[in-house]
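Hi team,

Below is the intake form for Dimethylglycine dehydrogenase from Ruegeria conchae. Please confirm the fields before the structure is written into the shared record.

FORM ID: S-0412
PROTEIN: Dimethylglycine dehydrogenase
ORGANISM: Ruegeria conchae
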Amino acid sequence: MQSHAKVVVVGGGCVGASILYGLTEHGCTDAVMLERTTLTSGSTWHAAGLLVTFVRSHNVSKMTMETIRIYTEVEEKMGSSVGLRKVGQLRVANTEKRWDEFQSYISIAEAAGVPCKLLTPEEITEVHPLLNQSPDIRGGILHTEDGYVNPADITMALAKLARDAGAKVYQNTEAQAYEKLDNGHWKVTTNQGEITCEHLIFATGNYARENARRVGLDLPCIPIVHQYWTTETVPLLKERRAEGLPEFPILRDEDYGAYLREDVGGIQFGPYEFTKDLKLFAEDRVPPEFGADLLPEDFDAVETQWERAIERVPTLGEVGIKANTRGPFQMTPDELPLAGPAPGHENLWLAEGMPGGILWGGTVGNRLAKWIVDGDPGMDMSELDPRRFSDYASKRWTMDKVRETWGTHMDAHVPGEDFPDARPMKTVGSYDLLTAQGAVWTSFNGYEFPRWFAKSPEEAIPEHSFRRTNHMERVQKEVRTTREEAGFIEMSPMTKFTVRGQGAAQWLDSIMANKLPKVGRMTLSLMLNDKGGMDAEYTIVRYADDDFYLISTPNWRAYNWDQLQRALPRDGSVVIEDISEQLGVIALAGPKAREILQPLTDNDLSNEAFPWLSAQMGEVGYAKGVHLLRVSYTGELGWELHHPVGYNRHLVDLLLKTGVKPFGLEALESMRLEKSYRAINREICKDLTPYEADLGRFVAMTEKIGGQVAERDFIGKAALQKQQADGGYNTLVTLKLPFCDTSVMFDEGVYADGKLIGRVTSGGFSFYCNHDIAMALVPQDMTAPGTKMQVLIHNEMREAEVIDTCAVDPTSTRARA
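The structure came back. Fields below:
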């Protein structure tokens, strides 16, 4: 074995082979793959190999389509089959909720580049005559590029092409220990000797947790046990093959919670285990004797699915069973991979937790390779970033959420839907007070967060639908009360850091696109990457020349922390502290906010003494050490009260006694849209620059120093200058649309004269204006107020009109009041 390589990949399954191939495709041939036994011997060899593109996410849809494209190219390069069959995939809707899900999905498909179409019940019968006719069938959706591939064949092909390009594959070579060297390289100790590398990638499948522990990582992924059966030859399928007819598409039907596909003349039956029946595997360590093994059949776990499947596809029960395949593969709490930089480690990359390594292998291999070679993955990978989970993701929490996620895999899902298992976990002191107020809770970064408020605790039942629900009346009341009087929201899960030290100001100035605020003031600033994309957003408060307080979104606490740590100067001149668990946050907003808060504090809240976007320390009620920040995400007059967390219950109790009512996340989201405030991972994301998001006002190319204008230098500046010079980029606008029972959400296609011109980044119903609002990326010549276009919502083209700035208070007069 060689002693050094630029990149070492640990793991020889489909994902590892895809990474090795991706590296060579991007010009890095000095790459090595280490496999503990032989290629494909883990989960790869017994995988079903399905290629599925049905997911309501713009970027994730593009990723799954990329895998199919890569495998197609690999087969062409090989000049021989890798078992790739684009037979299509047919999903059947038997309920209104499922049909709503399909109609919502079809609205994003073209914008994401996914070919698919909705089918009537009659068309379904033509496409898949084996399916029993049922009056329950509402319709279906057919993905024409979906299909399957032979897992072993595609893995071997990827490895061969990588080797042909100069990469090395070492089988029977087990990585046993890792050490970070003083020069920043990694040393990998194996049973065949040692090898050093600049970049180290983990793609270890079922060994993910135990392997990651060697470098101090506790990964939120657990192997689950899944199985499928293959029947004896079905005469009809045999006849069709003899006639040269194509395979039927893969069939999914929620009634039986499984997929069916042709398999060498028979039918492959792949049921999805319910939560109560799902078995986990090797929660801490894979048994040493376990290799390319299968586990014993467990028919009892899926008997219900089998019986229902026979009712819908009688042919399944007319032939015998030939084989059962049951084995483990990785699963994460949200059924998405852990792919990207490993938190807390330079040049260590993760390609773990793959809920279908064949499906994810192509795109993850390509994007990680590009990230390592070019310094950027070429698209926003945030939904797969391992740092989306922070330290709340314990092993037991992961186990329960994995069971829940897989057990509800076949359910119709509404975006933003909450799931109850492993909750509540973290709560603030006011949790009982807000629950008594009727709070319906959601979860952020492990913490409970109020979503909306029912009339009473007894009526606090979560509702999730693609259509208008009863609780929307409650949300509308929260919005109108806040806009017309006042309201407060408990927001303690927010991310909170302090940045101090003699080099703090200089360092922050070099990594933030906006200039720093003056002492006692605050500003919004964006942290960019080298391409000018927006990596993060912070509200920065300055208490002294070298004393800063940074606030960001709850769910990206681990990501934000890791990004700042990577950018930190090594001379000790800057010290960052994560105080997210130490401070709670309550936001009070509305035209009466001043008169409600003033009797509770000695701070002068007048406009003259406490202007908009300023910050003071003070006392509120009995609470000492409170950060009073005059800012509000609602766009109304308001203050955020960042307080020592022990005072949380006291402050909520204090506000409730004034008569002010709480509001939840859904009301806040509606008010955000009414103000066209940008949101993390929607308008503020790695794929967009501040200019594309129309946030140029938060970019400062220059600043005045001593009365002189000086150029600033910050990460991403050169890319922004180039973009300004080149022009021609799409820009974010705000659209007004009619409400028709189903609202715009996100990622829907935007059209003009029947042609796709852009996509929605986020949208929803305005409870104050009584119409839908969306923010969308469109060409610059379509941005003038009054410009007409259409948005595809729930498979229906709806007229939309560009409005100037935002729907409510465009001059921010209310916030400055």
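SUMMARY LINE: The radius of gyration is 27 Å.

Thanks, M.
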